[in-house]
Amino acid sequence: MSVAATPPAIGSFSLPRSLRRRPRFRMAVRSSAVPVDSILTKLKHECATPLPVLRRVADAMAADMRAGLAVDGGSDLKMILSYVDSLPTGNEKGLFYALDLGGTNFRVLRVQLGGKEERVIDTEFEQVSIPQDLMFGTSEELFDFIASRLATFAQKEGGKFHLPPGRKKEIGFTFSFPVRQTSIDSGILIKWTKGFAVSGTAGRDVVACLNDAMERQGLDMRVSALVNDTVGTLAGARYWDDDVMVAVILGTGTNACYIERKDSIPKLQGHVSASGRTIINTEWGAFSNGLPLTVFDREMDAASINPGEQIFEKTISGMYLGEIVRRVLLKMAEDGALFGSSIPEKLSMPFVLRTPDLSAMQQDNSDDLQAVGSVLYDIAGVESNLNARKIVVEVCDTIAKRGGRLAGAGIVGILQKMEEDSKGLIFGKRTVVAMDGGLYERYPQYRRYLKDAVTELLGLEMSKNVVIEHSKDGSGIGAALLAAANSKYEHSF
Ligand code: ADP
Ligand code: MG
């Protein structure tokens, strides 16, 4: 297709009057020094993920997993022990709670489990947003706030929810920040991320912080399990389906966990447990080997708060895909006059274009790509003609395709590693990969690319046994199930 940039056809799409402000322009550009098509061709070439690249990534993922299991610090992948040794069976019974703290909201959940026959008798949940000032306050203030909301929620027990007399309420705590887990119910916060800057928690046991706050509130509750969100997702999905072996989160960030044999974990040395298996939290966002990267990725990384870290996450997850596309479009505007002879200031603002915008643009099936035009105008302040819009969609597709296909290669890397250790464990039978997260859920093209890559790598026959399944919000119930499995009371399962 010819993609020579032409001046924008102003007024080729209609906007509400209120939006018809003139955008502010930053600079005039040199006249099409580099044609837009050559920038696009180069981008597609550098982002390409043909089968040999996918294979290289899958192999490197498997090798890095092994190295991380051998010794702490042995690879980019931390391969963190979850201390989850017993998986939900479906026999769990009783009333349990879950608390999910992972971003700007926290969620509390109550579930009455009825065993194999009745399963989930009832659930209730509540979502509370965390006031901004608490994200910058002290540890006590934050945990007191959480405990007070939890207390209000716990008071409203009734209906189908019953706790036997004399028992403390037990809770599974999903905490999606980097933690060095020290047992199933304790873990040291390494650092806050995602905009949290709470003083006095780093280096402390987050379970103790919550237990202390609950005690200050006079709340008769204890944390029985501290759970990473991927681990919660795996447990939640496994409750319904014994074939679930892997869980992957693709949302703002990304991570994966899977069920590992204890005798395949050399760094475990001497840990004994009844079960021969455990869940390993790979922290695969830190993976970096063999990825096809561009100057746009390298510049985004250099400008980030953690340069050189989380490279896989920066290539495939929701927080970054929009920003990579923005950087490409800015280059096309500056060097190739994609949007005409001047560049709107907004396009120079980091993170102004978000991944949901890419997805919205890719769903536009209209002849004149009107929705693409609106997104570009509303978000980046650019007026675009049809040609420019087509190019923008191609850029979105290139970046989403690379991300989805690399995520698929990562999944195959995990399956491959498991199969190498136990022949027939994965590929000889039905195996389920439980997926969750807003990116996977709401970007259909990305999801399709991910599945295509898995099929290409495994071949049509073998890939029929691998079921990639959306497990929506499984992590909440998963945490409650792990609280049940690690209850300090006698239980009948
Ligand atoms: P989190 O990962 O923060 O726990 P979610 O799993 O809900 O939360 O994922 C939210 C992320 O998913 C957003 O940051 C965004 O990157 C991505 N996302 C949300 N909606 C869409 C969409 N429509 N298309 C593509 N990505 C989306
Ligand atoms: Mg989440």
Structural overview:
This protein is an alpha/beta fold and 493 residues long. The chain has two domains: 31-81 and 240-473, Hexokinase, domain 1, CATH 3.40.367; 83-227, 2-Layer Sandwich (Nucleotidyltransferase, domain 5), CATH 3.30.420.40. It is 42% helix and 19% strand. The protein has a six-stranded mixed β-sheet with strand order 2-12-11-10-14-15, with helices on both faces. The protein has a five-stranded mixed β-sheet with strand order 5-4-3-6-9. Helix 7 crosses helix 17. The structure holds adenosine-5'-diphosphate and magnesium ion (MG). Magnesium ion (MG) binds next to loops. This is Phosphotransferase. Keywords: ATP-binding, Glycolysis, Kinase, Membrane, Mitochondrion, Mitochondrion outer membrane, Nucleotide-binding, Transferase. Residues 40-239 form the Hexokinase N-terminal domain.
List its traits:
493 residues; alpha/beta; Hexokinase, domain 1; Nucleotidyltransferase, domain 5; 2 domains; six-stranded mixed β-sheet; five-stranded mixed β-sheet; 17 helices; 15 strands; 42% helix; globular; disordered N terminus; binds adenosine-5'-diphosphate; binds magnesium ion
